[in-house]
Amino acid sequence: MSGSPYEYPKEYDVIVVGGGHAGCEAALAAARMGCSTLLLTTNADTIGLMSCNPAIGGLAKGHLVREIDALGGEMGRNIDATGIQFRQLNTSKGPAVRSSRAQADKQLYRLRMKKALEATYGLDVKQAIVDAVVVDGGAAAGVDTNLDVRYRGKTVVLCPGTFMKGLVHVGLVNYPAGRAGDFPSLRLSDSLRRLGFSVGRLKTGTTPRLDAKTIDFSKTVRQEGDDRPVPFSFDTAAIRRPQLPCFMTHTNAATHDAIRSGLSRSPLYSGIIKGIGPRYCPSIEDKVVRFSGKERHQVFLEPEGLKTAEYYPNGVSTSLPYDIQLKMLRTIPGLESVEIVRPGYAIEYDFVDPVQLHPSLETKPVKNLFHAGQINGTSGYEEAGAQGIVAGINAALRVNGEPPMVLSRADAYIGVLIDDLTTKGAREPYRMFTSRAEYRLLLREDNADLRLSETGRRVGLLPEERYRRFLAKREGIGAFRKRLEETRVGAGHPLCAAVEKAGDSLLRPGITYAEVLRRPGVTGAMLLACDPELRGATREAVEQAELAIKYEGYIRRQEEEAKKLKKYEDMRFPAAFPFETVPGLSAEVRDKLVRVRPDSIGQAQRIPGVTPAAVALLLVVLRRGAEATVPSYPRGETTG
Amino acid sequence: MIRQEETIVAPATPGGTGAISVVRLSGPDAFRVAGDLTGLSSPLAPARTLIRCSVRDASGGILDIALAVFFPGPHSFTGEDVVEIHLHGNPVVVESVIRAACAAGAVPAEPGEFSRRAFHRGKMDLTQAEGLCDLIAARTEAAARSALRQMRGGLREEIVPLRERLLSLLALQEAAIDFAEEDDVPAITSLQLLERVSEIIGRLEELLRSYEAGRRFRDGATVVIAGVANVGKSRLLNRLAGEERAIVTETPGTTRDYLHADVPIGGVPVTLIDTAGLRETADPVEREGVRRSREIVASADLVLFVLDGSRAAEVGDRSAYEEVAMLPHLVLLNKSDLPAAAEGSGFAGAGKRGALRLSAKTGEGIGDLVAAVAREVASAEGAIRAQAPLTRARQRLAVERALSALSRAKAATEEGLPLEFPAADVREAAGALAELLGEVAPEEVLDAIFGAFCVGK
Questions:
Q1: From the candidates B2, B29, B414, which should be mutated to test the interface with A, based on the most A CB atoms within 10 A?
Q2: ipTM
Q3: Which of A370, A440, B48, B180 is in Cβ range 3.0-4.6 Å of A391 for a Cys bridge?
C-alpha cells in the first residue's frame, strides 16, 4: 500500500466491515440509534447472504432470533417476510426449550435485508475490501481499503465472517476465497496481528447444492411445516406466505463405502486442513469415520427458494473431491441421478481469540474497535446476528458517550453466548445450545420481549410504538395472573366437573384458579373453557400466566440462582487490575487470568481451571484494593 | 488473612525433646532464607534429597549440624518452594533456628497455614483439606484412618463417580432436548430416567446415613450412665475410665454434678458421662442436679441404665427407666459380686439382648459391656460406612440438596412434566455435588454428549 491513501471526506460515527448477518444487525442498530454509519462489503450483491443452509432458527438459535428482535433487530422480521416453511421444534420437551425454525427463500432473504439497510437514513453501503484498521492513540479511527481509500470512523465494527485469509478446499484442490465465488480478505488479519491480537484458524464447511429436477422425491419422506406458522418477530401478526415441504432420505452402506474410497484425497484426513472444525456440525466423512458402526445418517433436502431449483441436502456437508461427492450422493435414495449445481467445500479462515473482548464486544487491545460474528469463533447466522446487534448498539453508545449494554447469563442467550466467548475463548466454532444456559427456564422464546424490551428501549433502538405495545402486553399478563390468583372456585363450578372428568382428585371449594392450574393435568385452556369471563384475555396473557403459575417452584429456584450470579457479576475488577502480580496464585491460574483479564469476579469464576480457592484470593485482593482507595480506573480503557 | 507473598516458617514436629525436630519453610523466599541459614544454594542442592549442612545465624554462629531437603514448587506440600531442615530434637535449637529464619525474612506461620496454602495452590480439594484437618485432630486410630482416607481423596472417590453418573444422565436428557432433530440420539424414557434417578438417590441416602457414623468417628459419641441413686454409676464410670474420676460413696445423691471421662471404645472417641441419680427430691440443690441429668440423658447417643442387681427393682427404678425407655440404651444389672435378686425383667431395653450382669466393683462383665457399647456406637456397618463418610455439616448439606433435587426430578417425571424440568433438577443435583469438590461447567455436559453420540447437523 502506498504511503498516502485517499482520505474519504466524511467521518462516520460507526464503520461496519462486512455485510453478513452480524454486519447487517450492527449497521442497522447503529444507524437506527442515530449514528452516521458506513457498511463496507466486498460484494454488495451478497449482503445478508445465507452462505450455508437456507434456514433461520432451530434449537436455541430461535431464542437468539427472538432476542435480537426484542432489542429491535432485523433478523426476525426478515425471516418472517421471506420464510417458506415454519416449524416449532421440541414442543413436547418443555416451554423453555421449544424453538422456532424456518426455511428461507435464500434470495428473497438477502434482498429484503439489503433493502432494509438501503432504506435506513444515515446508513451508507459501499463495496470495498478492507485491508487494515487505522488506529490512533490506542483507539480505532477508521479503515484502509485495498483501493487505497481511508474511511475515518469514531468506532469500527469488524464482521468479516470467513473472509480473513479464507481458503476453500475441495478434495486436494484449494484456493483463496472468502466464500466459494467471492474474493477473500488477505490483509486484514495481519493488520490485527500487528495490533496485538491473537489470531487463530478455524474451519467450517457446507454441502453440495443439488438440481431439483434430477431428484426423485417419491423415494423420500415429505416433511411439511406447521399448519399455523408462528412468526419470529414480536412485530409480525401472522405468516400468510404459502409453505413448501422438505424431504427426508438417508445415507447407506454404499454411501459410506464411497466416502471411505475418497478419504485419501480428503483435505481433512490428509492433513491439509489445519483449522479446527465444529464437532456438532461435522462433515459426512467425519461422521462416517468417527461413528463407523452407524448404518445410516439422515439427510434433509431443503428448498433454497421459490424461484430456484437448487436444493440444500442438510447432513452431507463435505470437502471430499468432486468425483467422490457425486459418487457418494448418487447412492442415496432419491439422488440416484442427481446433478450437482455447486460442490460442497470446506473453508479455513482466520479468527481472533474472543477472550480479547470485553462483554460489550469492544476489543481489549484497541479501544473503539468491536468484533462480531465468525471473527469471534462462532458459527451460525443467529449467533452472528446476536453479536452484531450487541456490537452495533455498543459502538453507538460509545459514540454517544454512554456506558455499554452488557447482557448477563440470566438475561438472555445473547448474554450466555458472549460470556462463553469472552470467558472461555473458542477452540472450535461455537454454536448455541439450550444446555449452555444454566437459567434456561427463565430464558424462553415466548418471554424474550419481556426480558429485553426495556433494554432495547433504554439504549434507543426499540421504536416507541413497539415499546408501548410491549407495555400493554405486560400489563395484560399481570392482570390476568392476578385474576387467577384471586378468583376462587365455588361449589358446583363447571371447573369441578372438568377436573373430575380429567381423572384428577376433587377440588375443595374456595381453591383459587391459580391453585387449580398448578395441578399437572389442568391447562389454561381448561380454565377458559369453564369461565367465559376469562376469555377476554390475550393468548400471550394466558400463556405467560399459565407458565408462571404452573412452574412457579422451578422458576423461583432459578431466579434465586440468578440473584447469586448477579452478586458476583457486580464485583468488578478495575481495568488495570494487576492479575500478573496477585500473590499466591499458581502459575497456571495466573496465566489463565492474564489471558482473559476478567471484568468481574463472576467471570473469573467461570474461566475453566480457575479454582474456587483462586477466586477467594482474588476477592481478598479486590477488597483490599478497594479499601486502599486506589484511584478508580475508567472502564473499557485498554491496558496494553 | 491470606498473605501468600510472605515466606512462612514453623516447627513441623511437636515441641519437646526428641531425636529430631523438623523446621519447615514455605513461600517464594524459602530457598533464599534456607540458603542464608545453611549456606546451601538451591540450584546446586538436588531437589527432594537430604543434604548435610550446618545451620548458622546471621552473625555466622553455628546453631546445629542438620539435614536439609529442598522441594521446589509446585511439587511440594504447599505447592510453593518448601525447605525442611531436620535438626537435633531440642526446643532451644528449634527456637533459635526459627528466630534466625525470621531474621532472614521469614515470618512465623499461623496454625494450619501450610495446609491452607496447599489448598489455595490447588494441591488438594476441599474434602481433602477437611480430611487433613480431621487427621490432625483425630482422637482415635479409627478416626485417624477415616481422616487419612478422606485426605487422600476417599470422599472424593465416592462423590466423583456419583457426579459422573448424574452428568451422564444429564447428557442423555440434554441430548434428547438439544439434538431432538438428530436420528442418532437415543431418547431417554421416563422409566429409564426414574430407574437411574432412584439408583443415585439410594446411594446418596446411604452416604447421608454414613454421616452419622462419620460424625461419631470424628466428633465422638456421648454415652450417659443413668439410673437411680446408689446403684453404682460412678463406680462404673471409674471402672470404664480405668482411673478414679468420680467420688464414690454409699450415700445416695452424692454425685450432684456430672462427671465425665473420655475413653475410646470401638475406635470411636466416647465421652462417658455420669449423672446425678434420676429421682424426685425436695432438696433444691439435688433437684437442680437431677434436672441437668435429664438434659444430658436426652441428648445421649447411648444410655447405660444401671440397676442394682442385688435388690429387686423398685418404683423409683421404673419411673427413672421411663425417661430412657425411648432412647438408645442398655440395661445393666450391677453388683454381680452380691447375691442376685433381680433379672431386669420388665425393662424393655433388656428384652433384646437381656440385661447385662456385671460388677463395677470387681470388673466382672465389664469386657462384655465394652463390646456391647462398641456395637451400639460403632456398628460394623458404621465402621464400613466410615471408610469415606461425610464428616462435615457442609458435606451433609450439599448431599441433602442433591437429594431433594433428585426427589423433585422423580416427582416431575412421575407427574409427566416435560423433560426440561427433571433435567433442571438433575443439573441442580450435579451442581450440589460439584460444590463438594469444585465447580460444574455446562461445557462438561456437552462433552459428555459428544463423547457418546454421533451428532451431526
A1: B2
A2: 0.85
A3: A370
All residues of chain B having their beta carbon less than 8 Å from the beta carbon of residue A557 are 424, 428
Find cell 433478523 and name the residue: A75
CA angle A92, A95, A96 (to 5 degrees): 120
The SS3 of residue B143 is helix
Alpha-carbon distance of A594 to A578, in angstroms, equals 9
pLDDT at A635: 38
What does the pLDDT average to over A533-560? 89
Shared domain for A213 and A334, answered yes or no, is yes
CATH of the domain at B91: 3.30.1360.120
Domain termination residue (choose one: A300, A330, A348): A348
Instruction: Report pLDDT for B372.
Output: 86
pTM: 0.78
Measuring CA to CA, how many Å separate A22 from each of A374, A378, B78, B327?
A: 9, 11, 48, 71
Contact A584 B443 (CB under 8 A): no
Number of domains in chain A: 3
The pLDDT of A436-455, averaged and rounded, is: 95
Inter-chain touch B177–A436, beta carbons under 8 Å? no
Q: Which amino acid is at A235?
A: D
At B345 the pLDDT is 57
Residue matched to cell numbers 369461565: A531
Percent with pLDDT over 70 in chain A: 97
Task: Tell me what pLDDT residue B451 has.
Answer: 46
Shortest Cα distance, chain B CAs vs residue A584, angstroms? 5
pLDDT attached to residue B15: 65
**pLDDT tens for residues B83-102?**
999 988 888 888 889 889 98
- Tell me the residue range of the domain where B82 lies: 8-120
Find the length of chain A: 640
A80 vs A613, residue with greater confidence: A80
Q: What is the pLDDT of residue B409?
A: 96
**CB nearest A554 (choices: B74, B119, B424):** B424
Same domain, yes or no, for A517 and A585?
no
Q: Does A566 touch chain B (CB under 8 A)?
A: no
Partner residue facing B420 (CB), from A97, A294, A317: A97
CB B299 within 8 A of CB B264: no
Per-residue pLDDT, averaged over A367-377, amounts to: 98
Highest mean pLDDT among A231-235, B5-9, B383-387: A231-235
**Chain A residue nearest residue B445, CA to CA:** A435
Largest CA distance in chain A: 89
Domain residue limits at A317: 209-348
Alpha carbons B31 and B21: distance in angstroms, whole number:
19
From B347, B363, B382, the end of a domain falls on B382
Instruction: Tell me if B3 is assigned to some domain.
Output: no
CB-nearest partner of B178 from A294, A424, A433: A433
Half-sphere exposure in the Cβ direction for A402 (13 Å, CA): 13
Residue type, B201: I
Total residue count of chain B as it appears in this document = 457
Cα separation, A335 vs A325, in Å, equals 12
User: Which range among A92-96, A251-255, A613-617 shows the weakest confidence by mean pLDDT?
Assistant: A613-617
How far apart (Å, rounded) are the C-alpha atoms in residues A354 and A357?
5
Q: Does the distance separating the beta carbons of A587 and B419 come in below 8 Å?
A: no
| pLDDT confidence of residue A75 | 98
A620–chain B Cβ distance below 8 A for any pair: yes
Q: Is residue A313 located within the same domain as residue A217?
A: yes
* Lowest mean pLDDT across A313-317, A424-428, B177-181: B177-181
Q: Which residues of B touch A90 (CB under 8 A)?
A: 177, 180
Q: Which strands form B356-357's sheet, in the order they lie side by side? A: B259-265, B268-274, B221-226, B302-308, B329-334, B356-357
Mean pLDDT over each residue of chain A, to the nearest integer = 91
- Name the one residue in this structure whose C-alpha cell is 409427566: B416
> What residues 168-227 of chain A have any CB closer than 8 A to a CB of chain B?
none
Shared domain for B241 and B350, answered yes or no, is: yes
Co-location of B170 and B84 in the same domain: no
